[in-house]
Amino acid sequence: KPVPGDETQSWLLAERYLRRYYRMQPGLLGTSKSSDVMTEKIRAMQSFFKLEVTGNLDDNTLQVMKKSRCGVPDVAE
Amino acid sequence: YNLFPRKLKWQNTLVTFRITNYTPDLKKEDVDKAIHNALMTWSAVTPLKFKRLHEGIADIMISFGRLEHGDHNPFDGPEGLLAHAYPPGEGLGGDTHFDEDETWTKDSHAYNLFLVAAHEFGHALGMGHSNDPGSLMYPVYSYSHGFPLSEDDIKGIQELYGPNPDHEKVKPKPEAPDKCDPELSIDAVTELRGEKLIFKDRYFWRVHPQFTEPELTLIQSTWPQLPKKVNAAYENPEKDIVIIFSGIRMWALNGYTLVPGYPKYIHRLGFPKSVRKIDAAVHIYDTGKTLFFTDEDYWSYNEQTGTMDPGYPKSIMDGFPGMQERDGDEVDEVDAATYKNGYLYLYHENLQYEYSYNKRKVVRITRTNDLLNC
Lengths: 77, 374
What we know:
Number of helices of chain B: 5
Largest sheet of chain B: 5 strands, mixed
Oligomer: heterodimer
């Protein structure tokens, strides 16, 4: 298969991050599109870290996602 | 701060802990000391007491493990995820696990075990993550000296357990400043390659022209070598450096990297030894001069020759007429300064004074937190 580009790597990093710390569920989610769910979780993460809430994977958001951190989720179960 | 749902907490103020294994990165006694001090951090501000067990089941079981380590919550190899802990409860509740694929230290290198342990024990006692970047319970790792709890952390843990009945004296770090506080004053402001950095206490905001929301960060988590508080800063775009002042020392940044050979003494710029700090600094790119503000005076520095201009210092009140406080008193000191398109912006307490070089007077007064899109 093709070698993933930078954008794919970023997307994978974000997906992993949001699943672990923002309880994003894997797989298909009934009527919700998975991209909508991911956008909502990105917004939640941006709001928590007081970043610009855009729902987009901008550089500032990715930078925070790459930082070493605690494994406890940021949002309550 | 945040707490776990249902405000999970230990019902007994005597909480037991057990260290089940050790990391080879540190001597056993260093691990013991880090764990002990991390627990003492929380007992200093609550009625909680901690008792060590050497066998059997303790409330807080502490271990080092890597990847999948028995709780279906695997670690991820070096970097990334450093540790985790479970909220108070039976079984796994309270247990604290550290990723053995990290390098654990007792100083500022790699990951300081005491700081990470103190954070994780916060979870083990019932604290969630805080979104105050200066709080111990902020999820992202940063190294700091001194007592690790901020006022935000203390408020959270005392909501669960109450204060320490012995009123042990601690010196918590202050909470993060509120950018929309109408009384906000700032310590320094500078441009850095198109972004604006605004310094206040231990923190700085980054304001990017394409984003409306400023980003708040701890100074020392970005530049561990800088002091906790900054007095003044300015960018020299021709040299592509930012000079940061604190007390009688100055540091140079090239982008976000500290330039080797710093800090240096501010007196190298030509200040007399009686000047002990710079209050504000701003580079006027139209003239190639940098203005420095100290107490009631200001100086003009020629960046090309590296010398102070003759005839300085001069009085701020005389140089920038129109700077008045609300009660009509003249403002004679400046906290921070910036320059753009023929206008000098001088900050004193919670007000921003816009000085026009053309009109040679202050033409507008607004709030300081206009800088932060507030």
